[in-house]
Queue: 3 jobs
Job 1
Amino acid sequence: MYATHVEEGSQMAADTPVIETGGARLQKGQLSLPNCIALSAAVMAPVIAVILNAPAAAPNAGAGLPLSFLAAFIATALVANSVIEFARRLPSSGSFYTFVSHGLGGGAGFFTGWLYFAAFSMFAIGLFTANGAFLHDYLQSEWSADIPWWILSLVLMGLVFLLSIRSIKASVRVDLMLLGFEMLVFLVLGVIAIAKAGDGNTLHYFTPSASPDGVKGIALGAVFGILSFVGFEAAAVLGEETRNARHNIPRAVFGAMAIIGVFYIFMMYALTAGYKLNDPAQLKAFLGDATPFPTLADRYASWMTQIIEIAAILGLFSCLLAVQNASVRVLYSMGRDGALPRALGRVHHSWHSPYAAIYTVTGVSIVAGILLSAWLGSGITDVYGWTGSLGTVAVILVYIMANLALIRFFARDPERNVWRHVVTPVAGILALAYPLYYVSKPGQAHPYNLVPYLVLLWIVLGLAAYMYLRARAPEKLTAIGRALAEDEDDLAEGKLASAPVHAG
C-alpha cells in the first residue's frame, strides 16, 4: 500500500502545478476533500479522546457526559466559524499564522505562529512517547514481549518520518484508513452497548440534572469535551496543496468537526447507557473506573476487548502522523516568510515536501521526548498529559487571537455579516475563557503547576525574537503571511487582492 502511494505521488510531481516562494514548491491541487477531513479528524484523535477524556470529565459531569460533549460541540462550532471564514479567503499552509497576520498585522501573526508551532510541537513530543509506551504495555500484557518503549517509539516515528517526507497524499490516506477502522470498532461497541442496555437508555443524560453538580458540573465536563476537539482546524494547513482550496478547506474543517462531534456525543451516550449511569450504584462504580470502555466491552462484547486496544494503538499512530504533517507546514510557512530561519522554508525538489521543517520537528520530538520521559516517566500519560496541557494552553490562545483577527479583518469588508463576523467570534472567545483558565489555573500538582509559567516564558522568548526582527529586518514582519496572497493563482481571481492587510 505504501509503495503504491509513493509511486502515485511521484507521478503527480511531474504533472501537478505547485506553489513556491523560490526554489522547489509544494504540490498544488494534489489533495481532495476527504484527504483534508482525514487530517483534521486524525489530529483530534477521537478514539484516544473518548478513552482519556471521558474518565476525566466524569467526576464533574456524572451521567451528564453526553450533554457536556454536546455543549463542547456547540462551543467548538463558534471557534470553527473563524477558521471557515478565513479559509475561504486565505487558504495557506500557515493556517492561523496567515489568518491573524492579515487580520491583526505581522506582529500578531508572528506571535500566533510562534504559539501554534509550540502547541503542535508539544503534541508531537507527547505522542512520540505515548505511541511507544502504549505499544510496549500492549506487547507486554498480551505477548509477554518486553521491548523498551523508546525503541518502539523510534520505529513508529521512523514510519511517520518516511510517510511525511515522501508523500502528504500517502500520509493522509493512511490517516483516513486507520481513522475509519478505529472509529468503526468503537461505533460497533457503542451500538452493542445501547442495544443491550435496556433501562439504561434514557434522554435524562441530556439534562443538567444528570450531573451531581447540575449546570456547573456540565460546564466543567464540557472543558474536557472542548479539549477533545483541539486540532479540528488542522486541515487549514493543507490550503496550498488542496484542489479548490477556498471551497474544500472550509468544508473539511466543518466536516471533520461535525463527524467527530457526532461520534463523541454518540459514544458518550453509549457509555452512559451501557454503564447504566441512571443507577446510583453504577454511577459510583463508573466514577472509580479509569478504563470504562474496556469495561463496557467486557460486559457486552468480550470478543472486542483486544480489538479496542489495537484500535487505540492505531489511533495514537494516526494522530502522531497527522500532527507531524500539520506542525511542519506551520514551521515551513514561517521559514518561507523569514519569520524564522529561511532554511526551514526549503522544499524537496523531487518529493515537494517541506523537508527541513520535517527534519526539525522529528528531531525535536525524539530528543525532547526522551529527555522528558527521563524526568516525568515513560508511561502512557506521563509526558503525553503534561505536554498536552502546555499545547492546549497555547492553542486556545491561538483560537482567541483568530477570533479577534476575524472581527478586524471584516470590519470594513463589503461582505461583512454582523452575526458571522462579530457575534459568533465574540461568543467563541467567551466559550474559550473558562477552558483556558481550567487548564492553566494555579494550584495544580507538580509538574502541571509549571504550565502557565512555561507558556509565559515561550511568549517572552517570542517577544525577544519579534523585537530582533523589528530592529534588524522590519520588512520581514511586513511580509509575514503575504507569500500566498502574492503567489496563489486561486486568490488572484478572488477578493483577497482588494482586502486590507494591517501592518504590525
Note: The beta strands are 18-19, 26-27.
Job 2
Amino acid sequence: MNFDIITIDSFYIIFNNTGFYITSENDISISLVYINSDISTAGDGDKVLEFNADTTSGTVWFNISGFPVGNSYVIKRDGNEISTPTANSSGFISFSNNVWSLHQFEIFQDGEASGDIISPQISNIEITLSNQIDTEADFGWENITCTVTDNVGVDTVSVNITYPNATTIKQIMTNIIGSDQYYYNISFSQYGNYSYYIWADDTSNNTDISSISSFSLPPNWDIDNDGSCNVFDYVLISNHYGETGSAGWIREDVDNNGQIQVFDLVMVSTYYSVTWWE
C-alpha cells in the first residue's frame, strides 16, 4: 500500500483520507491490512477496508472517516456480519466491539453507489454585449458564458437572472458540444441594472453555485451611457445629423431606422432630464 499522507495523533491516525478515531478503555493495537485505493468508486460487495485489532477487554468504538456521504457498509468480524452503518454527513461510519483478543475486521460496500461526492466547478463567467448596446430585440443582445467541469459528468447548467424591476428567471444554458463551455443568449428589453449567477448540477446531484455578477443596460435615449438624458446626448446626435447607415449602426440612431434625423432628437427630448442609473 502506498500513502501520500499519514497523520498520527494521540487520538487518531489518518492514511490519506481514511482516518481511524478509536475510543477504548484499554490499550488497543491496530494492524492495517488493506485500504481500497478509491473508496468512492467501490461497487456492491467490494471490500474497502481490512484491519486487525487486539485488546484485553471492554467496549471499543471505531469511528472511521473517508467514506462517501450516504453510502452503506457491512462490517464483518472474523467473517461474521456485526454491523451495517451508513456514512454520515461528515463521511464517518461508526461501530463498536466488545468481543476481544485478536480479531479481523473487514468493511464492504453495501449496494451500488455513485461514489461521486465532488461538486462541479464553475469558472470563467463572462457577459458579452452587442457591439451597439440596444434594448430593442432586433438590434441588441447579451450573451452569458461560463466554463463548467466535473470529475464524472455535468448534468445541467443554468443562469439565474434578476431584472431591474426585480423579476427573476432561471434559464438552462447551452453546452458547446465537445467542450466545457456553456452559454445563454438573450435580448433584454428592460434598461437598468441586472444581476445573475450560475448554478451547476452534476450527474450525481452535486451542486456548485457561483458568486453574483452584475451588468447594466442603458436606455436607447441615453446616447453616451452616462445615466441621464441631457444636452450631451443632443450634441452627439447633432454631430451625426443627416448621416445614414444600416439600421441601428450607432447609438445616435435612436429609433434604429438607419437615419440620423429629427425623430432621434424627438425621442431624446421626450426623456430629457430623466435619469435611470441607481
Note: The domain at 121-217 is CATH 2.60.40.1940 (Immunoglobulin-like).
Job 3
Amino acid sequence: MRYVIGIDLGTSGTKTVLFDETGQVIASHTIEYPLYQPQNGYAEQEPADWREAAFDTVRAVMDKSGIAPADVKAIGLSGQMHGLVMLDAENRVLRRSIIWCDQRTAAECAEITEKVGADRLMAITANPALTGFTASKILWVRNHEPDIYAKCRHILLPKDYVRFCLTGEYATEVSDASGMQLLDIPGRCWSDEVLEKLGIDKAMLAKVYESPEITGELTREAAERCGLIPGIPVVGGAGDNAAAAVGTGVVRDGKAFTTIGTSGVVFAHTSDITIDPKGRVHTFCCAVPGAWHIMGVTQGAGLSLKWFRDNFCASEKETAALMGVDPYYLMDKAVQESPIGANRLLYLPYLMGERTPHLNPDARGVFFGLSAMHTKRDMLRAVMEGVTYSLRDCVEVCREMGVNVSDMMACGGGGTSPVWRQMLADLYGGPVGTVASKEGPALGVAILAMVGAGIYPSVPEACDAVIRQGTVQEPIAENIPAYETYYRLYTKLYPAMREQFKALAAL
C-alpha cells in the first residue's frame, strides 16, 4: 500500500493527515498556535510557528501510524491564503506575517487601483483591490516599514514558506497565487503589467506551478525533523478553499460546494474563465490544471449562529452538557418547531459587513419584523434562514455569470446540520449532498499528491477513486415557493437600508 501526507496550514492551527492511496485516514494530528493583534484591525502570525507545527505534526502522524517512511510517496500542502511572508537574502523571516484577515491596507488598495486602473485590475487579476489580498500588504510594508522592505529578497505565502522549509525551493501554485492580486488569472502566470505598475520586483516572487505538479523534494534536514526519508516529492497543493474543492470532488463543470464555517462560501468549478465586472465574487485559478473557480463569500455565516448561541442560548448549552450532546443539536431541534419564514421574521447576517453581493464593510446585522409573539426558536430559525438567503445571493451571482451550480455539496460545521442542509436544498432548488470524509483540505491536497506521485493520472480520476458520497438532502417541493416569497422580501431589505448603514457607521 502507498501513502501520502496532507498538511493543512490553517489560522488556528496546522492539521496533518496521513492517508492511504484509497483516501482512508491512517493517522491525524493538529497543533495550534497564536494569532497576534498588535492594533485594532491588525492580524499577524509567526511563520516559525507554522514551520514547527508542520514538522511536528508530520512526525506525530508517522509515529502514530507505524507506517514505514519509505512507503510515503508524496506530500501535499494546503494553507490559509493571502498572508505575506518576507525573507531576506539569508532566508531569515523579516517580520511577522500579515495574514488574510488583516484590515490595515485601505490606503494601499486605493494606491493599487490608481496605479493599475480599476478596469485593468479586474481584467488581469479578476478582482478589485481588497485589503485581504497580498499585494496591498506588500505595499503597506514598503510604505510603513521601508527598512524591512529594503532587505526583502523573497515573498512567499504561508503554505509556501512551509514548502521552502521542507524543500528549500521558492515555489507556489496557481490557486493560492491567485489571491495575491499579482497573478494574471486568465494566463495563470505572474502579471508583468501589474508588477511594473506597482514597482514590485518579479525576482522576489516564487515560481508558479499547477497544483498537482511536483515543486521540490524533501531535504535531508527536513526529513530528519519529520521522521521521513529525503527525496519525497512535494506537490504544489492549493489554497484552503481550492483544496476543499478537491477534497469534496468539486473538480468538474456543474459541481459546486457550500461551506458554512465562521464565514460562508459558495464555490463553483468552471472550465471557462468568467469574471464578474462588479467584483461581487472572486475568480481564481483552481487546483485542476486549466480550470478556474468562482467564489462568493458570506462574512457572517456560522458566526451568526455562534453569536446567537453564546449570547442567548445558555440554557441549551447547560442542557447539552448534561445530555452529552452538542448545543447545536438542541438548537436544530428548536428550529424545527418554528415554521418556514420564522413567523414572518427575517435576519440579515451582516455582523462583519458583507462581501457577496454587496461589497459593504458598513453593513450590519438586522432582525426585521420582530414582534412580541416571537420566541427564541423563531429567532434561531431566522438566523439560519438569513444565512441561507445570503448564500443564495452567492448562487444567484454564479447563475448570472453563466456558471452551472447544479451539483451542490455542503461542508463545514454548518454543513453537518440536516436542518441547514434542507434549507440550502429548498432555497437552491436542488439536491445538496455531503461526502463521507470530513478531512476537506487535507484530503484535497493528499489527492493532488497522489496525482503528482503517479498513483492516479488526473485530479478528476483521483477524486472518482477516492471520494465517497455521504447523505443527500433533496428539496421538499412545497417548501420551495414558501422560501422564495421570503427570499424575495429579503433581497429588498439591504437596498432599503444601504444609506442608513453608512449613516450609522459615521456616528
Note: The first helix runs from residue 47 to 65.
